[in-house]
Design goal:
single chain, 111 residues, alpha/beta, two-stranded parallel sheet, 4 strands, rod-shaped
């Protein structure tokens, strides 16, 4: 019984700082876009583009605030649909996704 109590108390003390300073920083971004076009006849020009740009930054300061960078999620999607009927028609489509994710963690320094 004493051995079990010692193990439980040791485990509790070991995890206490984690529980006391746990501050999850979760950044989630969901971006989507879609275009649809119908061109009928002659000499039509269809230009479609979906652009998704994302910048996520997390800064952690262990020694000062007990905050660590955590989870960054990014979901980006784009869709273009076009129906062209006739002659001399031009269809230009593009999907552009860009995600920049940065995590900076300043370690703790002893006083």
């Amino acid at each position: 019984m004493k051995k079990a109590s010692l193990i439980i108390s040791t485990l509790a003390l070991t995890l206490a700082p984690v529980a006391a300073f746990a501050n999850p920083q979760v950044q989630t971004s969901v971006q989507g876009g879609s275009n649809s076009a119908v061109s009928v006849g002659a000499g039509n020009y269809t230009n479609q583009a979906v652009s998704n740009d994302l910048t996520q930054t997390q800064v952690g300061a262990d020694g000062y605030y007990g905050v660590d960078p955590q989870i960054q999620n990014s979901v980006q999607a784009g869709q273009n649909q076009s129906l062209t009927s006739g002659y001399g028609n031009v269809t230009n489509q593009g999907v552009y996704n860009n995600a920049d994710q940065t995590q900076i963690d300043f370690p703790a320094y002893p006083y």
